[in-house]
Design a protein that fits this description.
alpha+beta; 25% helix; globular
C-alpha cells in the first residue's frame, strides 16, 4: 500500500486548509506545506509504542525520529516513481516544519512504513502513506492510518483531506474502505498530466482507544 497526496499542480487541499486557518507560509515550486514533530506527551497514546502482530512479526507504530530520515527517504523512493517520489530536500523540508506528525511502522530496527500528515484543526491533510511492498496487504497501512487519525481527533481535527491518482485503483479502494469519500477530480494534478481524486473523511469527536 502506498499513496501520494499532493505533489505539483494547480489544485492543493493543503493550500485551502492553510488559507481557512488563517496561516501563510513559504511555497516551494507549488509543493505542499507540511509539518512534523512529536506530540511531546500531549496525547497519552503516544507515550508507548503501539505493537501489532502482522504475519507473526511484531510491528511497532511510533513517532518519527531524526535518525529515521535515510530509511524514510529510501522507502519513499521504492514506493513511488521518479517525479512522484520525494527528493531528500523536499522530504527534509516537510519533516522540518513545526506542527505536523509523522508516524513510522518498525519491524525491529527496520522501518517498513510511515504516514505523514499536517493539521490546522479542525482540518488536516494526509501528505503520504508509504508501506514496503513485502508488508502490504497485512494491515500495516491500516494501523498507521488509524493511529494517525486517533491523534488528529484528539487534537481537534474533524475533517481529513487527501489526494490520490485516479489510476491508483488499489489506493482508492483502500481509502474508501476506511471511510474516505470522493469529492472532486483534480485535472493534471501530478507530473505527466495525471489526474487526482480529492477525498475527504469526517472524524468522530471521540478518537478510538489506542490502549
Amino acid at each position: 500500500m502506498e499513496t501520494r497526496s499532493s505533489r505539483e499542480g494547480n489544485y492543493s487541499s493543503h493550500r485551502r486548509l492553510l488559507k481557512k486557518s488563517g496561516q501563510n507560509g513559504p511555497w516551494m515550486v507549488a509543493w505542499k506545506h507540511s509539518r512534523v514533530f512529536g506530540i511531546s506527551g500531549e496525547n497519552p497514546s503516544t507515550e508507548a509504542l503501539a505493537v501489532h502482530r502482522i504475519g507473526g512479526v511484531a510491528v511497532a507504530i511510533r513517532q518519527y525520529e531524526p535518525h529515521d530520515f535515510a530509511a524514510l527517504h529510501k522507502l519513499d523512493q521504492a514506493c513511488f516513481p521518479p517525479g512522484i517520489a520525494y527528493s531528500k530536500t523536499m522530504l527534509r523540508y516537510f519533516l522540518s516544519q513545526p506542527g505536523a506528525e509523522c508516524l513510522v511502522a518498525a519491524d525491529g530496527t527496520k522501518i517498513v512504513g510511515f504516514i505523514l500528515s499536517e493539521e490546522n484543526p479542525p482540518l488536516a491533510h494526509i501528505v503520504t502513506l508509504d508501506v514496503a511492498e513485502s508488508y502490504r496487504r497485512h494491515g500495516v497501512g491500516t494501523e498507521l492510518l488509524q493511529e494517525n487519525e486517533a491523534h488528529l481527533a484528539f487534537r481537534g481535527v474533524r475533517t481529513v483531506l487527501l489526494e490520490t491518482a485516479t489510476s491508483n485503483d488499489a489506493g482508492i479502494a483502500f481509502w474508501e474502505r476506511h471511510g474516505y469519500r470522493r469529492e472532486a477530480v483534480l485535472k493534471n494534478y501530478y507530473p505527466g498530466r495525471l489526474d487526482a481524486l480529492e477525498m475527504r473523511k469526517k472524524l468522530s469527536a471521540t478518537p478510538r482507544s489506542t490502549s
